[in-house]
Amino acid sequence: MNAAVDISGLTKAYAMDGETVHALRGIDLEVPEGDFVSIMGASGSGKSTLLNLLGCLDRPTAGRIVLGGEDVTTLDDDRRSEIRASRIGFVFQSYNLIPQLTVLENIEVPLYYQGQLDARGRQRSRELAEMVGLAERLKHRPTQLSGGQQQRVAIARSLVNDPRFILADEPTGNLDSATSEEILHLLLELNAQGKTIVMVTHEPDIGRLGKRIVRLHDGEVASDERLDTVEVRIQKSEVGSRRSDAEGHSDFPNP
Ligand SMILES: Nc1ncnc2c1ncn2[C@@H]1O[C@H](COP(=O)(O)OP(=O)(O)O)[C@@H](O)[C@H]1O
Ligand SMILES: [Mg+2]
Known about the structure:
Elements: E1 5-16, E2 19-31, E3 36-40, H1 47-54, E4 62-67, E5 70-71, H2 77-87, E6 88-92, H3 103-113, H4 119-131, H5 147-159, E7 165-169, H6 177-192, E8 196-200, H7 204-207, E9 212-217, E10 220-226, H8 230-236
Parallel strand pairs: 3-8, 3-9, 6-7, 7-8
Antiparallel strand pairs: 1-2, 1-4, 4-5, 9-10
Bound molecules: adenosine-5'-diphosphate and magnesium ion.
The site of adenosine-5'-diphosphate has 12 residues, from β1, β2 and α1.
């Protein structure tokens, strides 16, 4: 089976006021299907740069990213947009919801851009809203929701095209610890269903819930550590103390 992600020699330099900022200095990383990688490291170590490159939102200075067997670094912009829309779900710290749209409409946005907002797509969006616990909030607008609820909308939106691969940049960065826990459990359940997840976080308690921690230091991989089974990870973590059955049990309908 192809790795979900195969990164080699990945380099990114930004030109800034005549100086060069070396954000990534040759990253090699393989992520098998179904993995859950927490990317950690100090501010400025290159975490967001790596995630943006993985998400085909930006191009590297050198090196290769192969997603599901396809080298995305050499593709043209149209094909990269297609891959972004169909294969990758994005979750950001700041939710990035559209304030004028309702919960349901926000979830439907990626379908709209794909020209796939038909009855089936609408139904799927409604099911995803239910799945993230927002069945009673379909007509609310983002400002009428808590931060945790907004992040649930963003997660439902990231799933509407049924991507195999989810990229999350500090998904709990704006949330209190109880709400962070809920969001993490959502991600754990998605991972248990087989989604590959790469999540940036600087919070150790959050990072430890992944299957693996990759630490960046100054644009390089400083360490790459496999963690325990999900049960043990949840037991050890403050964040996961309320539930311990994320892997064995799922509330979600299989997409
Ligand atoms: N668009 C940009 N232009 C110039 N420099 C940038 C840009 N984006 C990031 N950088 C620089 O690249 C380095 C890595 O940034 P980033 O990937 O955002 O780090 P992290 O997410 O780990 O905090 C930092 O030194 C940052 O200032
Ligand atoms: Mg960042």
